[in-house]
Design brief:
By secondary structure, this protein is of the alpha+beta class. 15% of the residues lie in helices and 29% in strands. The longest helix is centred in the middle third of the chain and has 13 residues, at 81-93.
Length: 182
Amino acid sequence: MGREREPHPVNDVNGPVAHEVGVRDSLNASGRPRSRGPRQVVAVILMWRGRIGLFKRSGSVQHDAGLWHCITGYLDADNDPVRQAIQEIWEETLLPARALEQLTAGPTLRLADPRGGPDWTVHTFLARTGQRRLTLNWEHKAYRWVRPWKLAQFDGQVAWLTDVLRAVDSLPSATARDGAAS
């Protein structure tokens, strides 16, 4: 409230624009219907001190409201996945690029749409930050820093969150879980 957003290196002169999975899946940037091919998104697992950031989606989003998720957003036709990932982190948490200690691209996933629509092409990323406090935008109503072996305690996760966590190797092995429990 009343807090000015600082300029971000990947935004154009008009500033950040909200891009959220599900909002613009029927139209392209010029307002025409999208092709029926795979939809392109970025998905970022944000970590702080070995904890995974889970973000509870607000009632203002069209898809998966009330569920825990990672940072996501459509990949704009004129943007590359790395730039889009940085932009989504900024938009959803107000973390500037300089607050990221690491940003590593993971594998690109192709996931079926649970509603029977076109497949999703998901460009996965792992980002680490030393900044604990985040400022959320309208897409999320809460966030938690969760130890990887405690992820299962968070009921109501977006169906494909586990796929993204596996892709960036953020799920603990059974031995790591057992060692942490003792």
